[in-house]
Amino acid sequence: MDRIAGIINLDHEQDMLDELTYFRCGAAVPFAGRYRMIDFAISNMTNSRIESVAVFARRKYRSLMDHLEQGKAWDLDRKRGGLFILPPDWNDPTDISRGDLQHFHNNIDFINRTLANYIVVSGSQHICNINYQDVLQEHKSSGADVTVIYKKVDELYPEHQRAHKLDVDENNRVTAIHNDHSNNNVYMDMYIIEKDLLYNLIEKCIAHGCSHFFLDGIKAKLPDINIHAYEYHGGHALVNSVESYYRNNAKLLNPEDHDELFKDDAPVFTKIKNEAPSNYTATSNVSNTMVANGCVIEGHVEDSILFRGVKVAEGAVIKNSIIMQRCEIDSNAVLENVILDKDCNISNGKTLIGAPEKPYVVAKRRTM
């Protein structure tokens, strides 16, 4: 039986979420009420029966390590395989690799020792719910060297400008990879490749002084290798800016968008925290809001997302906002189009108002 190992490559993901990435990498940013962005990438792998997952992390990964721990939440705390958080190794004086090829080179033992004969490489900025076993079957039947995954989006947003796009022919073969802003075929930073081919391409890239494996090892080899395109049809969000983070969280208040991403047969797993159910007092007024456990709500909340342990005092008003873990909103405070990071306190009578296209963001542990 064919096996797949997984690599979540965070090396080229820039921390462009402003205040939300002051103290953490983008993969560790909370999302959708109780998750982190990386939860979707890891859950996709475990739901696809991938038992060995490596995370390539270079900077600001303390919060990520705290969240992932030994991988128990994803059933990856196992004797064989499991979850590996792998910063680059700086102690090899003979190492000439650069960029994310440092990760591939210095952690080549992960690739060599895995019993899998295929490797799935993914980032964390494309939020989706995908089964890589389906991708593998199409990859094998196509006879391709590499299969890349893309989403044909209905509408292009600013976040798509920084994404690579694909030209695909009638046989689903990739003919070009570029940054054409008018192309709707958005490459999702995910591909599947045979282990031996991955190893050979890594060696060639390092020998030629390359620094970006996908661009130099796959995109640049487009005329020489067969790259197949797999079209993903499920729920999808690309989060690489504050605006895209705010909009794609808000989309989940729509039941259809929510159910496309969160499926009963392919659940999204996250670190478990045992907290009491949320408490809605007689003075509370809550509508069209996603509320995690452990909250105490006495005020007015509408069209918003409340993470675990949020406290909203009587008389407080929250509209179109994202309130992260353990924030406290005091009486008569007004928040509209606001993102509060963890452990913030908004004092009595304070008013914070942003715009839908430019939400007001407060960094973690601030008192205002």
UniProtKB/TrEMBL annotation:
Keyword annotations: Glycogen biosynthesis, Nucleotidyltransferase, Transferase
EC number: 2.7.7.27
Listed PANTHER family: GLUCOSE-1-PHOSPHATE ADENYLYLTRANSFERASE-RELATED, GLYCOGEN BIOSYNTHESIS PROTEIN GLGD
Protein family according to the UniProt entry: Belongs to the bacterial/plant glucose-1-phosphate adenylyltransferase family.
GO molecular function: glucose-1-phosphate adenylyltransferase activity
Protein's UniProt name: Glucose-1-phosphate adenylyltransferase subunit GlgD
InterPro entries tied to this protein: ADP-Glc_PPase, GlgDAde_trans, GlmU/GlgC-like_hexapep, NTP_transferase_dom, Nucleotide-diphossugar_trans, Trimer_LpxA-like_sf
Lineage of source species: Bacteria, Bacillati, Bacillota, Bacilli, Bacillales
